Structures are given as C-alpha cells and as structure tokens.
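Q: Could you write out the predicted structure for this multi-component system? I'm mainly interested in how the pieces pack against one another.
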Amino acid sequence: MTGMIFIYLGGLLILIGTIGILRFHDVYSRLQASGLSDNVGLTLLLIGLIINGGWERYDWALVLLIALLLATNPIATHSIAKSAFVQDHAQRRGK
Amino acid sequence: MTDPVALAILVSIGAVLIRLWRGPTAWDRLLAYNSAANRIIGVLAIVAVTAHKSALLDIAIVYVALSFLGVVVLARFLERGGSFR
C-alpha cells in the first residue's frame, strides 16, 4: 500500500513535469521543470517499486539505478543549462 | 496495479516528443531527449518488476549511462560553437 502511494506520486510528478516542458516559454524554465520533476519523480517511482514487492534478489539493480540517476541527471541538466547560457552570451557579445 | 502509471508515462513520452519535434532551439530538443530517456527508464523499471524480468533492469542501467553520455557530449559540442539549428 505504501509502495503504491510512492509509485502514483512519482507518476503524478512526471506528468506535472511534462506539462511544464510543453507549456513554458523559455529554455531555462523548461530545464527547471524537466530537471526537478524528472529526478524526484523517477526516484519516488523506483523507491515505490522496491517497497511494493518486498525485497527480492534483483532489487539491488533498482538501488544501483537510483544511485546512477541521482548522480548523472543533475550533471546532464547543468550541462545543457551551461551550454545554452554560454552560447547565448557569445551571440550577444558578437553583435 | 502499476499499469495506469506505465500508461501515463507512455503518454507523457509522446507529449515530450512533441517538444523534441518543434523545439525552437537545439537545447530544447536536447532537453526533450533527456526527459524522454528518463521516462523510458521508468517504463522499463515498471515492466521489469511487474513481469519479473530482471534482464530489463540491466538494460535500464546501461541505458542511463549511454543517454547521459550522449546528452553531455552534445551539450559540450553546442557549447563550443557547433552549429546544427
């Protein structure tokens, strides 16, 4: 039951992030919506999947997946944001 | 029991691909690619746990690493002034 609450909360956060990606007007706003809600939603979803079926043998792979997502996803978001910022300023300085 | 969540994430993959199709800049497309990869990982994890196929979790781990590598490499390429717009 607790696991189902976690899973549905994660799915809801991912849907909210999708609405943010579709509706916002700027690259940085879309990065805000995408980065925050995807990371938290996926982590909640995977924690819910671990809790839901009890501890099985392949749940170590889910733990590794959570650790890998929490390590790599903020770096990818920061990299896109830095790339957009640097290119924007280079174009403004050139003109 | 987790089928509605998987279905909702599949619908949101389609909605994110709209942003990938008509993003105004290249960074919008990169962001949409990153989000679509994250959602695919979520669907893979749900299917793997529901159907008791642990091989899909290994596929998901490799997919995380490869999508991270692709996003970071493309972002650095755009940052150094590569141009496909």
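A: Regarding packing and overall arrangement: The helical segments of chain B are 3-21, 26-51, 55-79.
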